[in-house]
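Single Protein Entry

Contents — chain, fold
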Amino acid sequence: MNSLEEEKESELAEAQEELRVAHEEVVLLQQAAEEAAAERENDIASLQEELCRRRAELQHLTEETQEYELEITTLRAEINMKSQRRDAERREGEAHSKGG
């Protein structure tokens, strides 16, 4: 009986050790999971911040583009008016030289 008791106690001690090791592994895995989750949260926050900056930059560039397009349209209109004025002046000059 003594031998059987010792064997059972040995098995129990072995099982308790396995349980302790398994518990330590669970704790380590939980810590690793928490660290990974925290890193992901930091990554997400950084990416959201970058996205916000890029959107602001895009908005600024869009506004600049609209301003430049308006300026180009205005300059084209001025060029057309000056060109028409020169054409009209040239025709008047030709009419005066033919009529004179």
Remarks:
- Helices lie at 2-99.
- Residues 2-99 form the longest helix (98 residues).
- Residues 79 and 85 are 10 Å apart (CA to CA).
- The chain is about 100% helix and 0% strand.
